[in-house]
Design brief:
The chain is mainly alpha-helical. Helices cover 77% and strands 0% of the residues. The longest helix has 28 residues. 32% of the residues are buried. The mean pLDDT is 80.
Length: 136
Amino acid sequence: MTTFHRVLGTVIVVSFVVIVLAGVLLRLTGRRETPTTLWAIQHWTENLLVVQTVVGLILLLLGRRVTGGSVPWFHYLYGSLFPLIAIVIGRLAGLRRGEREYVGLALGAFVAFGLTLRAVQTGCGQTVPILRCFGL
């Protein structure tokens, strides 16, 4: 299950990068409306983050603990609570804009990307190069 947890974490990080890059591209092209596809990616990334949190809780209940890093409990905060808050705030910011909603989505995804990337790093251990955490 830990391989699944790692792969799902990688998919989530990549999804956040896609949302950020799409937001930048849409802004550079001057587009006003948010494509339905971007909303779908945002929605599925949120769902995957919830699944990832549940899988992490199952691993925790099974006795699996984060052993890397000086403060391993950061993994739990970076991996679930903080990104969920960031994407909810990004979604709310997007909905309040009226147009160019993708800007809020991209900003929330950017913050969540950094947090989930940090969760991967704290889960793998501070001394492990980040690419090795992703299995590369």
